[in-house]
Design a protein that fits this description.
Elements lengths: L1 E5 L3 H12 L3 E5 L3 H8 L10 H10 L3 E4 L2 H5 L4 E4 L14 H13 L4 E5 L7 H15 L6 E5 L9 H6 L4 E4 L3 H11 L9 E4 L1 H32 L3 H9 L20 H14 L5 H13 L2 H9 L8 E5 L14 H11 L3 E5 L4 H8 L4 E2 L12 E4 L11 H7 L4 E4 L6 H6 L3 E3 L5
Parallel strand pairs: 1-2, 1-4, 2-3, 4-5, 5-6, 7-8, 9-10, 9-12, 10-11, 12-13, 13-14
Helix pairs in contact: 1-3, 5-6, 9-11, 9-12, 11-12
């Protein structure tokens, strides 16, 4: 089977590579010629565990190809996935210009029946817009070629995307006829042999499923963050509260970890988009709007604690920060709470020293030389007035606190992910500030 994937961003690259791993012949297409050249040379532009070796293996086996022209990739393909970016507009709605542009190009090129699948996260009704764009080009050509639409939203977690794709909890596919369903079943057959379900539904339902899933997860994060903030005021311990409510099978413990607010490429964008979708149809999603508002507050929670401790005086203060990416196992700093905090501290005149195992280069693109990039975690703390843990990378979980005590000028630790034991930290002479911890 041969398919094409348009877009070699995070979703497109993982999608194309994992399909190639299952034996499908895949052509990934991107209009960035330099990026295509780098991928063909084995250089991967994103950090994702297991992805680079899989790309190289499938390129060598001639199952995975990277092209800069859609014409080469779409010829002979049974399915073409649209996996280009849908950045948020100023009003929060998803910007579909790249999606529609690809659709028009597909319509100008196809010579035989093909299934066009939206993999990008798009609002309800996008499949119909794509259908009209493709058909419009076919009409201009007086072509009788037919095609079908499908929606196949992704549910990939950054840092675990390869496993998520190869061992999916579920595969959601929106279709409107059996022919499309049969083709998609054949394509996904290797991934459902271990009883991972394919959930077929109408296209509109598939399109909203992605937004609803991310809105629910974001809701859980904002909820536990608000309870943690209440615990701070009441002298309770959010870790105990989290265990108490998470043991209820109706609630569960996943996504009930308090911190400094959600970030990344999906949750902030998708929450805004589903709110805008509701507004466009005359309905206010009040719960989801509250989730977004709570997250905006939470991004300031560590800064607020620091401001109170330092009496709003950050002049001549040096802050050592561990973690830049919005979560571990990725170099993605989009909507990162750490980068947000750094921006706030810089405005107040603080000097910043940082360390992250993967996201330093991405951060340099944004912050340049305004901060100091340390060669290891401890260098970031040398002479600092406080240490701030912002991303719970595994290498940060069991540091040498005696060594930290010897190099950290101010014996202050802000734990933005609650990964340290406050009592042990205090025994070593540190002041400890967590999220909702006594």
């Amino acid at each position: 089977m041969k398919i094409a994937v348009v877009g070699t961003g995070y979703v497109g690259l993982v999608t194309g590579t994992c399909f190639a791993e299952s034996g499908v012949t895949v052509t990934c297409i991107d209009n960035d010629k330099q990026k295509v050249r780098q991928l063909n040379e084995g250089s991967v532009p994103i950090y994702e565990p297991g992805l680079e070796s899989m790309i190289r293996r499938n390129v060598e086996k001639k199952r995975l190809f990277f092209k800069s022209g859609l014409k080469d990739g779409i010829e002979g393909s049974e399915v073409v996935f649209i996996a280009v970016g849908t950045p948020p507009g100023e009003d929060g709605s998803a910007d579909l210009k790249h999606v529609i542009s690809v659709a028009k190009e597909i319509g100008s090129l196809i010579k035989k029946y093909i299934v066009v699948v939206t993999k990008s996260t798009v609002p309800v009704g996008t499949a119909e817009k794509i259908r009209k764009a493709i058909q419009g080009q076919l009409d201009k050509r007086n072509s009788k070629v037919t095609f079908d639409m499908a929606s196949n939203p992704e549910f990939l977690k950054e840092g675990a995307a390869v496993d998520d794709f190869l061992k999916p909890e579920r595969i959601v596919i929106g279709i409107d006829n059996e022919r499309t369903a049969d083709i998609m079943k054949r394509l996904y057959m290797p991934f459902v042999l271990n009883n991972h379900p394919i959930l077929f539904m109408d296209i509109a339902s598939a399109e909203i499923t992605k937004y609803a899933a991310n809105a629910m997860l974001a809701t859980r994060i904002s909820f536990i963050n608000e309870i943690a903030n209440l615990c701070d005021l009441l002298g309770a311990d959010i870790n105990q509260v989290r265990k108490g409510i998470g043991s209820d099978s109706r609630i569960g413990s996943k996504f009930l970890y308090p911190g400094t607010g959600y970030g990344g490429s999906c949750f902030p964008k998708d929450v805004k988009a589903i709110i805008k979708t509701g507004q466009d149809h005359g309905y206010e999603l009040n719960v989801v709007k509250a989730v977004e508002k709570a997250n905006e507050y939470q991004k300031n929670v560590i800064f607020n604690k620091m401001t109170k401790l330092f009496d709003n005086n950050f002049r001549n203060k040096t802050i050592g920060i561990w973690g830049l990416s919005f979560k571990p196992k990725t170099d993605d700093i989009r909507e990162s709470s750490s980068v947000y905090l750094i921006g706030m501290l810089l405005k107040k005149g603080a000097k910043i020293k940082v360390y992250d195992p993967a996201a330093m280069d991405e951060t340099k693109k944004v912050l340049g030389s305004t901060i100091y990039y340390a060669g290891d975690p401890y260098e970031a703390l040398e002479g600092a007035d406080a240490m701030v843990l912002m991303t719970e990378w595994s290498e940060f979980h069991l540091p040498d606190f005696k060594k930290i005590a010897g190099i950290l000028k101010g014996k202050i630790i802000f734990d933005g992910r609650n990964i340290y034991d406050p009592s042990e930290i205090k025994k070593l002479g540190f002041k400890y500030f967590g999220i909702g911890r006594r």
